[in-house]
Automatic annotation (TrEMBL):
This is 3-hydroxyacyl-CoA dehydrogenase/enoyl-CoA hydratase family protein. The chain holds residues 1 to 288 of 657 of the full protein. Monomer. It comes from the Archaea. It comes from Halobium palmae. Residues 8-187 form the 3-hydroxyacyl-CoA dehydrogenase NAD binding domain.
Length: 288
């Protein structure tokens, strides 16, 4: 049984996962520092949090007003300021091992010696990330699903060096902010859920290259006939085509040609205005 309490948390990265994770912690009553590399990115994440909290408050899904929850969140571009006196840091930066190792090396210097350092990585090795620090036993995976505020599951991923106390503290903390955590005791690429979910999106993308598939019809079939909340193309757009792309690349696997095309054109899905579908006409520069 873990004994540590977590009251103050820093979230590094204000993108779709980062701001959503920060929102979960703030709703759960924590003081949250949200940090990204540029002010515009942090402000954007903060505004998306406001949008989401207002929706939840309107529907009575949270007990407090959006403003009261937001009062517990501060924003910064300074890592040192973000992690000062925190109990936990959750890194939600892009899926690149060198970048994550750099961040964890810096965190090891700047965060309190007893703080837990967690990564929201969806597929990279927690062990390798932890080895960029002098406290690998205090490094753990804390993997949320998009949108964090609506998806209950959190994977608590052990690296080879993660202590039981660290994993148990994060597991208890996830429960305390209303999530349903599961332990992933083996640091395998993609952990549990993405090992099942990424192929769902990947197979659909391969079908586009090899068969005559209609995107809307395929999505509709999975939603209306199979009862899935989203079809494979809509889900890829929602989570970001680049996420599955990088996960597969990092695992040394060949990616579907359509993912290569979309990612190199910057058409990563909903967040960039265009993926398989068009969300923002200004982003649709080569027609659908
Ligand atoms: N905050 C607040 N409100 C939100 C919201 C958010 N983040 N997202 C959607 N809403 C609102 C909508 O605007 C809508 O509001 P309205 O009624 O006023 O119009 C309302 O919630 C209902 O939304 P939807 O009709 O879209 O549907 P649901 O709420 O039933 O479900 C969903 C939304 C939970 C996203 C559902 O479609 C779903 O479960 N999709 C699959 C998601 C999934 O599989 N995620 C995992 C992806 S993999 C991953 O994340 C791993 C990572 O490593 C990549």
């Amino acid at each position: 049984m873990a004994t540590e309490t977590i009251d103050t948390v820093a979230v590094l990265g204000a993108g779709s996962m980062g701001h959503g994770i920060a929102e979960v912690f703030a709703i759960g009553g924590c003081d949250v520092r949200l940090r990204d590399v540029e002010e515009e990115l942090v402000d954007d994440g903060y505004e998306q949090m406001r949008w989401s909290l207002e929706k939840l408050a309107e529907k009575g899904l949270i007990d407090e007003s959006a403003e009261t929850v937001l009062d517990r969140v501060s924003t910064t571009t300074d890592v040192g300021e973000a992690v000062r006196d925190v109990d936990l840091v959750v890194e939600a930066a892009p899926e690149n091992m060198d970048l994550k190792r750099d961040i964890f090396g810096e965190l090891d210097e700047l965060a309190p010696a007893d703080a837990i350092l967690a990564s929201n990585t969806s597929s990279l090795s927690v062990t390798e990330i932890s080895e960029a620090t002098d406290r690998p036993e205090r490094v753990v995976g804390m993997h949320f699903f998009n949108p964090p505020v609506k998806m209950d599951l959190v994977e608590v991923v052990y690296g080879d060096h993660t202590s039981d106390e660290t994993a148990e503290t994060v597991h208890e903390f996830a429960e305390s902010v209303g999530k349903t955590p599961i332990y992933v005791r083996k640091d395998v690429n993609g952990f549990v859920v993405n090992n099942v979910l990424v192929p769902f999106m990947e197979e659909a993308a391969w079908m586009l290259s090899t068969e005559d598939v209609d995107i809307r019809a395929a999505d509709a079939a999975m939603v209306f006939r199979r009862g899935y909340p989203m079809g494979p193309f809509e889900l890829a757009d929602y989570t970001g085509i680049d996420i599955g792309y990088h996960a597969r690349k990092e695992a040394g696997r060949e990616v579907p040609p359509v993912w290569e095309e979309k990612v190199s054109a910057g058409h990563n899905g909903k967040k960039s205005g265009r993926g398989y579908y068009v969300y923002d006409e200004d982003a649709a520069d080569d027609g659908e």
